[in-house]
Amino acid sequence: MRLLLFSLSLCLAASAQEAVKLTLTAPLDYQVYQRSTPKEGKIMIAGNVETPPDATPPQVILARITGEGADGKWQPVVFDPLVPAFRTELSAPAGGWYRFEIKAWAQSKAIAEAATEHVGVGEVFVVAGQSNSANHGEEKLSPQSGKVAAFNGSKWQPANDPQPGASGNGGSFLPVFGDAMVERFKVPVGFVATGVGATSVRDWLPSGTRFTNPPTLTQNTITVGRVAYESRGGIYNNLINRMKALGPNGFRAVLWHQGESDANQQLPDRTLPGAIYQNLLETLISSSQRDSGSKAPWFVAQVSYHGPNDTASADIRLAQRMTWESGAAREGPDSDSLTGDLRERGGQGIHFSGKGLREHARLWVETVAPWLEGQLAGKHLIRSYVKLSPLFSDGAVLQRDVPLPIWGSASAGESITVEFAGQKQTTTTDAKGVWSIKLAPLTASSTPQTLTVRGKEDVRVLRDVLVGEVWLASGQSNMHWTFAPGQTVDKNEEELAAANDPLVRQFTTRKGGVNSPALNVSGTWHKATRNDLLTGGAMGDSALAYFFARELKAKLGVPVGIINSSVGGTPIEQWSPGGG
Fold first, then answer.
1. Rounded distance between C-alpha atoms, residue 449 and residue 289, angstroms
2. What is the H or E stretch that residue 450 is in?
3. What does residue 514 show for φ and ψ, rounded to 5 degrees?
4. Which of 60, 75, 314, 344 falls between 20 and 30 A from 358, CA-CA?
């Protein structure tokens, strides 16, 4: 009897060993595939067939999806019995969740099978940036639709906070954003969260990309020379690897929410000037599109908020907007507008409260959903932006008591309306898209006001605009001299420590000549604070112009703005008109 039982167990073991094994590596459970048309997409199928030597190899492999909207028909999977691994695509209608089934057949009998319970075809978004793109919110959230998933690079799962693959252990805006998009578009939504808290745009750059200002936190930076630094590239590599894991055309867009760690840093040399921020962000965007093989657009939010005493950086906000206007990115939401109880710790923190996370999600829906509707309808529209001379930006000072010109550009023939201080003027752009209006003389005002410019599709809202005296400061080094180290000003530290006058402001133009009169200049307005005096215009604001403006404001009792166009070491010939 013992011998018989032993022989039987050997037979059973041999039988088990001879079974064909079918293993799936794709699709994964809760995986969302980016649809290619409004009605359908492709599901990637990948796996292995292990056939023991004594087993009958499969002759056919069939796969199907079942669920609402799916026809449930079995479709052949291309494979070679001599090659264990296989990979192919299966067309599927937009929607889900679907159940995916695959079976290997031999001699009219299923000899191996596998299944994935939750597979969707819908919309996929990569989310990148710093803490408010990741898991640092005050309340953890969960999607309520049951159709929002997240991918950490190797595994898909329901998108409950904290989002896999991003930093932090708190909440994010993604569950609420995902639910709203599911409701609006009736398909599953997938997220690939890659955000890293406290990161500068410099930390996200490809390895070897150089810059002259190190970020505040330098663990992702290498010093390569005197005032020369490079990105290590680790964060960028993770971003690219996560994009590639989705496959070709595997996501709809990148949602970028970052800027706080480049704006108004405690160490002034760690603050990134707006023009450099724009250049580095556009380098990141173009590099990622090249290296990932995906031309999916980036949505860039306006982000620079640090707290109730530092609600925005005009320089970084303008740089973010300029990525839209240059065509490098699309317009994202203005999250600097989320203040008060929308921020953690009763409005004192930088991260969002639970209420703020929900409002942040709503702003993203308002930005992304109309664009996506146009994409699905085949309307690849190029948005018409209202462009203003940078002289008209957040924090500007306007000249009092004279007819005041305001100018910019938009699409040719577009109607433009300007509203400020109770006045409203409307004009139409010319054939080149240029427009200008004149406001009636304004009375000096120290009260911050809003200037609004409306076009057909775009609204520019300039905040914290004052009316007073505006003066031009120009010349060479004695006018250009700044508070920066090495350009010694008497009682330098005392003067900087005492500088805190929001009614004294300076617009420092970025250096560089042009061959003919230009419609615009580059720069942003800065208040007379220590950080801004040290970093305005990249190298710092003019010390002489600051002292002049401070004294003039004390005598006249009105705001004073300085437009600083000085350039050190320039002879008079370089300031003369060209052409002889």
1. 40
2. strand 445-454
3. -130, 160
4. 314
Cα gap 537→194, rounded to integer Å: 32
- Sequence letter at residue 287: S
What are the angstrom distances between the C-alpha of 276 and each of 288, 391, 563, 576? 18, 18, 20, 29
Q: Which secondary-structure segment (H or E) carries 357?
A: helix 354-376
Q: What is the model's pLDDT at position 55?
A: 87
Q: What whole-number distance in Å separates Cα of residue 241 and Cα of residue 134?
A: 18
Q: What residues in the chain have per-residue pLDDT under 50?
A: 1-17, 538
23 contacts: CB under 8 Å, gap ≥ 6 = 47, 48, 49, 50, 114
pLDDT at 10: 36
Task: Give percent helix, percent strand, percent coil of the chain, each to the nearest 5.
Answer: 25, 35, 40
Is 70 in a helix, a strand, or coil? Answer: coil
Distances in Å between the Cα of 412 and the Cα atoms of 431, 433, 437, 520, 552 are 5, 4, 16, 18, 42
553 vs 550: CA distance, rounded Å: 5
Distances (CA, A) of 84 to 15, 158, 346, 416: 20, 31, 59, 65
Length, in residues, of the chain:
580
Cα–Cα distance, 520 to 185 (Å, whole number): 42
Task: Kindly report, residue by residue over 444-489, the tens digit of the pLDDT.
Answer: 999 999 999 999 888 888 889 999 999 999 888 778 777 766 655 6
Name the residue with tokens 């970025």.
510
Would you state the structure tokens that stand for residue 63, as one six-digit string?
A: 């796969």
CA geometry: angle 572, 577, 578, nearest 5 deg: 110
pLDDT in tens, 46-60: 999 999 988 888 999
